């Protein structure tokens, strides 16, 4: 038995008769905060390792916590007769093969840009109900992550973006971080909410981009 198979069995035991009452009463909805928290902790472990402050043991632990969320949700669905972890894996395998025709089929690509463009095209075919390149960006993302995702999607779709700010930090992420901190400090000193301000600005940008996209079609 593989470790993954054993993990699935352990999860079923925890949620089954004579198992853990806390685990047994969880639902997809009740687990959402834990999934978000574990994703952030994984990101922190990756960043710590890259900075030399973390190690593989910490990264492995945090990856396990994220995997637990997947197995937990799959077991809830299994117990209700909807799907199980094998179905989750099978769906993922099919998606990876479908979105990598340059690996699993005979499509020729010329570099990463072609791969990304092809990925986007395949996603549009898979989800025709999404009328905009900006559809599917989670509203719950932190403001900065949502702003970055919105502009990344817009750039890939060829939508017009606002001019870059006059502050130029080049390719230095440390300098960029200091500049962002300075903006947050300035906002705080004036009693402004930087998170809310960026979220509002991103929402307005998204509305403009969607209007431009509609006009183009």
Q: What is the percent of helical residues?
A: over 70%
| Class of secondary structure makeup | mainly alpha
Number of H/I helices: 10
The biggest beta sheet reads: none
Along the chain, the helix and strand elements come as HHHHHHHHHH
Gross CATH architecture of the largest domain: Orthogonal Bundle
InterPro entries: MazG-like_dom, NTP-PPase_MazG-like_N, NTP_PyrPHydrolase_MazG
Organism: Agrococcus jenensis
Protein name: XTP/dITP diphosphohydrolase
GO biological process, one term: dATP catabolic process
General description of the model:
This protein is mainly alpha-helical. The protein folds into 2 domains: 3-83, MazG-like (Helix Hairpins, Orthogonal Bundle); 138-216, no CATH class. Helix content is 71%, strand content 0%. The protein contains 10 helices and no strands. Helix 1 (3-15) crosses helix 4 (56-79) and helix 3 packs antiparallel against helix 4 (56-79). The protein is globular and about 60 Å long. The protein starts with a helix and ends with a helix. The mean pLDDT is 92.
């Amino acid at each position: 038995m593989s470790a993954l198979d054993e993990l699935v069995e352990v999860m079923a035991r925890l949620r089954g008769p004579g198992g853990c009452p806390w685990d047994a009463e969880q639902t997809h909805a009740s687990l959402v905060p834990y999934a978000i928290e574990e994703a952030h902790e994984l990101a922190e472990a990756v960043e710590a390792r890259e900075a030399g402050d973390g190690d593989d043991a910490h990264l492995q632990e945090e990856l396990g916590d994220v995997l637990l969320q997947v197995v937990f949700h799959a077991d809830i669905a299994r117990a209700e007769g909807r799907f199980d972890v094998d179905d989750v894996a099978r769906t993922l395998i099919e998606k990876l093969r479908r979105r990598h025709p340059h690996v699993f089929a005979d499509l020729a690509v010329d570099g990463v840009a072609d791969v990304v463009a092809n990925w986007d095209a395949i996603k549009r075919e898979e989800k025709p109900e999404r009328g905009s390149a900006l559809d599917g960006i989670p509203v719950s993302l932190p403001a900065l992550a949502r702003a970055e995702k919105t502009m990344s999607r817009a750039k890939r779709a060829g939508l017009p973006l606002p001019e870059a700010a006059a502050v130029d930090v080049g390719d230095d992420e440390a300098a960029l971080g200091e500049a962002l901190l300075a903006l947050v400090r300035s906002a705080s000193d004036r009693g402004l909410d930087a998170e809310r301000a960026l979220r509002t600005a991103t929402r307005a940008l998204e509305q403009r981009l969607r209007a431009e996209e509609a006009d183009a079609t």
